[in-house]
Amino acid sequence: MSSAGALPRPIPGAPARTIVVGISGASGAAYALRTLEMLLGLGHTVHLVVSDYGRRLLFDEAGVTHLDFPSLVPRLGDATIADRLFIHPNKDVGAVIASGSHRHDGMVVVPCSSTSLGAIATGSGSNLLTRAAMVSLKERRPLLLLHRETPLSLVDIENMRTLTLAGAIICPTNPGFYLRPTSVDDLVDFMVARVLDLLKVEHRMGARWGEGAAGGDGTREPGRRISSSVP
Length: 231
Ligand SMILES: Cc1cc2nc3c(=O)[nH]c(=O)nc-3n(C[C@H](O)[C@H](O)[C@H](O)COP(=O)(O)O)c2cc1C
Description:
By secondary structure, the protein is of the alpha/beta class. It has eight helices and eight strands. It has a six-stranded parallel β-sheet, sandwiched between helices. A two-stranded antiparallel sheet has the order 7-8. The model is unreliable at 214-231 (pLDDT under 50). The chain binds flavin mononucleotide.
């Protein structure tokens, strides 16, 4: 499956951001690919690190065989965009994103496995993905963890508690249905829009609650609420 929502374009006047993206071995490759497509297409710089099982998930769920620009974001063709994607080997804990002196505007692990969640919670920086996440915490930069697993064990819950207290944002891959999605892409975009909001990245990914809702035919009617109650 590839991301098939509307292609992003830079928004005039929106500040350019540098975002670290980690992809670990949880289900949800579509969330990762759409996040990359949105960030790069909107004009931002991305530092990407993918775990071994993240690579497997990209292949199993999305047919991605190579970690390169054309394979990860096939709908974005411009060479100037490719120049804003930096791909780091997960074994290279000497890469720039392993250092607090490298400035960025936030990191998202999408999707985030229970293994990576636990490693970050216990301060294990044995690979670049978890090291970069720990550095984001110590530098007090936004860290979003799009955990995917169900049900949760007490171990996961305690790790989430620890990470929340340390400043991370646990953001389960848990899309809402109140905008009446009609496709998997709609569900993916629901989550990716929340990610961009939390990273303070401007976007125009569609209706927010109260700003427009799906009609019965799947069209959006600006300003129409689904009901008077807030979800
Ligand atoms: C097809 C497949 C799907 C998986 N889905 C999940 C998942 O949704 N959540 C999870 O925590 N682990 C999942 N796993 C297990 C993780 O990949 C495994 O725990 C691995 O050690 C994660 O390592 P990483 O965090 O370094 O990527 C899955 C593994 C495979 C092969």
